Amino acid sequence: MVGKILAERYELLEKIAEGGMARVYRARDLVLKRTVAVKVLKDQMTGDAAFIRRFEREAQSAAALSHSHIVNIYDVGEQDGTYFMVMEYVEGDNLKAYIRQKGRLPAQEAIQIARQIAEALEQAHTAGMVHRDIKPQNILFSPSGKVKVTDFGIAIAGDGMTVTVGDEIIGSVQYISPEQARGEIACKQSDLYSLGIVLYEMVTGKVPFSGENPVALAMKHIQEQIVPPRRLAPDIPEALELVILKAVQKDMADRYSNAGEFLEDLYYAGEKGLPGTASARNPGNSSYGEESEEEDDKILRPIDNSLAEKNTSFLARRWKTILKLVIFFVLVGGIFGGGAYMFSNFVSPPEVAVPDVRGLSQSDAAMILREEGLVPSSEVIYIYDDEIQVGNVVKTDPPQGRMVREERVVDIYVSQGPEYIVIPDLSGRTEMEAEIILRELELSMRVVREYNEDIEKDRIFRQVPGESFPASRGEEVVVYVSQGRGPFRLADLVGYSEQGAVDYLESNDLKPRIRYTFAVGSSGHVVDQKPEPGEEVLPNQFVDLYVGR
Fold first, then answer.
1. Helix (H, G, I), strand (E, B) or coil at 533
2. Are residues 357 and 364 in contact, defined by beta-carbon separation less than 8 angstroms?
3. Among 46, 156, 339, 482, which one is most buried in terms of CB atoms within 10 A?
4. What topology does CATH give the domain 420-482?
5. At 24, is the secondary structure helix, strand, or coil?
6. 397 annotated active-site
7. What is the mean pLDDT of the chain?
8. Cβ distance 162 to 184 under 8 Å?
9. 73, 85 in Cβ contact below 8 A?
């Protein structure tokens, strides 16, 4: 692509970045004579017409955003199937590279960076845009050190659908919110969760979760709590830790409701060293660990040496009295201790071991407990259990083997059978989304891939058991994932006009590759083809057409 000119205006000079969806080039705007950044979607992204429509719509919406901390989008277009976006060129490192270079950032510097990101999000959210991919790689620094948030063009509008590509949820899984990991629609609080994770990484030098694969990592965002940042970096102000912990709550209702609240607490944490009033302030602790003036005065008051000398003789006179009191209390304690020992051995009931009644019927278990001198609780507790038969005892409290006093009341837990899980509808979801959903329900998944030209590639079109089927924990769900259109036989295109052959191939999702050759009497018509007529081909496969001249 380097050297190519898009829209007869943007000359691509060099590739400067690459992600899962697009490549970014430093380019020259030949009309306005300025350097710009051009993001070009990869070929595999351009086959989804619905995604392209969303990309163009949201890029145009993002172009309307104007803020000093948001990378400006100048243009969006298409040329010969190449979809691109023209953006402000920011010459500088991204935040990820900066964190790697520094190890971790001082709290005040991290707060300043987070405040600028939050200001950008506040502007975008007010305009109805959700970024949904906040991560250090998308935070750039201008030469003057100003923070610039990029990639709003591949964000979605606040009321849009979640954008997925194949089996990968867009957005780095290390920073993804729990609701995005479950395949739900991202919202303002999703961006604030991701910003909380970015702030955590800035002050600790580490992301809170790591995993062997994206699914395992996404599950940690859904289920596990982060290690409080002050355990990794004790020098972080407690106020800043409270801000981070609120931002990364699993439940959206427990997070900041908007970027303005986040900003308010960042100001307090950065400038006053206290949590903000909006949400993070410690209730009932107005002094926040500081000594009162009266206490300070006591600590700093000088010692009167003459008084100390007078007190010395006084203490000497009191020593004998203190010693007598100590001896008295020791004797009294011994008497009471001995009495308590005699009482426990001769007055209180003896101890017995709780018998093992697991698997027995409720009535048999109660009878055995009484025979041992224990009292079965009048209230039976029913719990789910996959192994113990319905109506039989699962466990007792205290448990079997525990030494307790006779006449102790023992709670009996009775099985009500396995807990059934209602299988959700997975149709239309990606493999990764389905695995996250099923793993959260403690169900396993097996994938079967089949050709299906009616269903979008990499989407689930069938599942066994089906939706709403009751399943036990650990049961396997088989999902059928579309591979798109299957192989089919290629038509004989010899004799077709060049345009006619191209139209046939494109209508069947094949890619024509024209090769001209000298052929008497066949100018402009196909004289040969590779693969041969009748051979099986797959969608997106190249077909060479030899056209006479």
1. coil
2. yes
3. 156
4. Trypsin Inhibitor V; Chain A (3.30.10)
5. strand
6. no
7. 82
8. yes
9. yes
Bond before 512 cis per omega within 30 degrees: no
* Domain edges within the chain: 1-89, 92-282, 351-415, 420-482, 488-548
Tally of residues, the chain:
549
pLDDT grade, residue 518 (50/70/90)?
Answer: confident
Q: Please, how many CA atoms are within 13 Å of residue 500, restricted to the half-sphere of its CB? A: 11
Task: Return the number of other C-beta atoms located less than 10 Å from residue 340's C-beta.
Answer: 11
Which of 266, 223, 240 is closest to 116 using CA atoms?
A: 266
pLDDT of residue 213: 75
Tell me what the mean pLDDT of segment 205-211 comes to.
Answer: 88
Mean pLDDT of 251-263: 93
Asked if 549 and 527 count as a contact pair (C-beta separation under 8 A), the reply is no
Q: Is 44 helix (H, G, I), strand (E, B) or coil?
A: helix
Correct CATH for 92-282 of 3.30.70.3090, 1.10.510.10, 2.170.130.30, 3.30.420.40: 1.10.510.10
Out of 75, 133, 151, 385, pick the active-site residue.
133
Tell how far CA 92 is from the center of its chain. Answer: 27
Quick one: tokens of 310?
């007078």
Structure tokens at 309: 């000398």
Can you read off the two tokens belonging to residue 529?
A: 């083809």
